[in-house]
Fold this sequence. Notes:
With 184 residues, the chain is mainly alpha-helical. The chain has helices spanning 2-16, 35-46, 48-63, 84-101, 110-137, 141-147, 152-172. Helix 1 crosses helix 3 and helix 2 (35-46) packs parallel to helix 4.
Amino acid sequence: MRDTTRVAAFAALIAVLGLPGAVPVFGGAVPITLQTLGVMLAGTILGPWRGAAAVLTLDVLVLIGLPLLSGGRGGAGVFVGPTAGYLIGWILGAFVVGAISFAGSLRPTWWRTAAACITGGIVVVYACGIPVQALVTRLPLAQTALTSIVFLPGDLVKVVLATAITLTLWRAYPRAFSRRVINR
């Protein structure tokens, strides 16, 4: 029951991070949102499986029509549009973030957390999103990848925020994590 509650809470957090809305990028098909920050946090705090489950929960709710994406978007149409690859990439991204950040010691470190967020939250999400965006928009893959560079500065800020939030939460309340806490 506790795991289900945590997964639902992170699905809700990702949805709430879409409330500020989407920032359109030079008329592009994919907007800038804060929701990727929630994907990173789901992985760093819940771990690979629960983090991916939180994102999958959000995606299923969006699929059935709830307007949980930035700008109030929802429904099956978003899974055939230019953002479809990113939505699927969020699931794999949260898993990779969790797998990397939970590797090694039980205590999160800034370098492992940041590396996890860069690898899963940026590289994996882009690797899933850019090809689908290119396919849907009928633009060459190289051109789509080049136009996606505009997202990088904001995503790097999200990495810094996710790392800071994760380490601060660990110090304040380590039981929030899906790791076994060693009493020392």
